[in-house]
Design brief:
By secondary structure, the protein is mostly helical. It contains four helices and no strands. It is elongated. The two termini are about 25 Å apart.
Length: about 110
């Protein structure tokens, strides 16, 4: 497996995790604290998280299929982007597991 597959997953796990934490904070500010300015923030972050979560799904599925994960594990990794802070913990576990499968690119040789 190429390192880029793991890197894409890691970046999207962090991005969706941070956005979900911001969205949760915005929701708390809007609903529980009654802050007026939180509505626009929550809308913006919610839309961004939604679109970027789709990329997370694609990259996580790509990683899982190349790592030959069972369906249950694949589903857990896919769902981790919807639970605040879960993406960070799952990402660390996934990296420890997948790192040995990553092959480093060797020197490029020309046959010409």
């Amino acid at each position: 497996m190429k390192r880029s597959v793991l890197t894409r997953y890691r970046v999207m796990a962090y991005v969706t995790g941070v956005l979900l934490i911001l969205l949760t904070g915005g929701f708390i500010a809007k609903r529980l604290l009654g802050m007026d300015g939180a509505a626009g923030f929550t809308t913006f972050v919610g839309i961004a998280h939604g679109w970027l979560y789709v990329l997370y799904l694609v990259f996580a599925f790509d990683l899982g299929s190349k790592a030959k994960w069972p369906v249950k594990k694949q589903l857990w990794v896919l769902i981790a982007g919807t639970i605040p802070t879960a993406a960070f913990f799952v990402e660390r576990k996934v990296v420890r597991e997948v790192e040995p499968l990553v092959r480093e690119p060797g020197p490029v040789t020309s046959t010409a």
